[in-house]
Amino acid sequence: MRLSRTYARIYQYSSFLLVYSIVMASHPIITLATLFFIIYITSYTVLASRDLHDVSSEWFSSSITVTPTLALVGGKAIVKLILKLKRRLKIPIEITVGIDGLELAGGSNTSSVVTDVGNDVILVFEVTSRVAGIHKLGPVMIGAKDRMGLLVKEISLPTVAYVIFLDESRRIPPSTTGYVSSGLSEPGLSRHPYTGLEDDFRISLPSAFTPTAKLIDWKRLAKTGGDEIYVKEHDRRRSVNMIYGLGSGFDIYIPGKGSVHGLVINLILQSILEQIKEGSQIWLLQQTSDAKFFFARVAYDEAGLRLEGAETLPRHGRIFYLSRMVVDGENDDVSELISAVKGDAIILLLNVSSEVGRILPGHLAERVKVEEERRLIDLAARLNIRCCLTALDSLPEALRRAISSGHNVLQ
User: Fold this and answer.
1) Beta-carbon count within 10 A of 151 CB
2) Most distant CA pair in the chain: distance in Å?
């Protein structure tokens, strides 16, 4: 607990005035009045703290929604917080929603209200960003006050939401499901000709209804001589936790291409959409400015793409971590994080020296290219995890090969 800013400042001034009046032997009335005020605030704080002692995060429930989840750099995203009080007690509170480096584009992410059971607190504001990236909104900080607003108890609610800012517009296609014999559309089956295919092969109609074949989504290709020919489109058992990680060093703007962060996010989104159709669970992790990680689960349905906050990663899955590894200790943090997940893992080390070299003089460009390549090779040698060095132009193919290799972890 703490004093509110106004009363804390008054308390400081009163203490200074009391010391000054004693030292300078001022009029007794000034000394006694100041002393009385200090004693009053101290006594009231002790008594009021009893009323706020039981107030905790369990008294509140909250949710944050962001519209749209995908926004353009410089555009606006609307954030809506709904806060409910579970106990039948009127409490003056201060609300603050963390915006993780985003800029306010309208409204305010703070509010002072008196909440009560049945009266939901709704806070709406707009945020924007000048750079591409995944940004976290939250947690929700609550300052519960006593009736006079003198004492404040700070409470943190772990409610978070995420918004992705992109350099260019990206249309998210509608959710796709496959048709099964029951006449229902089941998620996890795709009619995309390239989804889940290693090798095309055909079977006859009797074979299509064997126990093994029933695990596969088959599409009738032709009917010749009374025999129906089917082709495998997608294996329904292919369900895996796909974990994509964004590391450090992507805050670089390349003329004609945009920010590296935006390019990497666009590439990941392309992979995510296809894998969700296959029935996989998608997770994102990103390193924050304080060298920590936040986790999010990607959900995709009729309402579109959204990111749900998560405290940890799943115990099993495949990890694809993309980074330039420019933060001290990042390799150790990533190794520890990956070791907690059972499954295949690969680190894609991105080399952007060629792109950076185009805006540098010739002798500096060659030196930067050599030094950066040497740094990444040395880094890969120290990591006990499978690594792949790739240039920016080769990143889509490198990621595709990384996804195609390794073993699926079935749920």
Assistant:
1) 24
2) 115
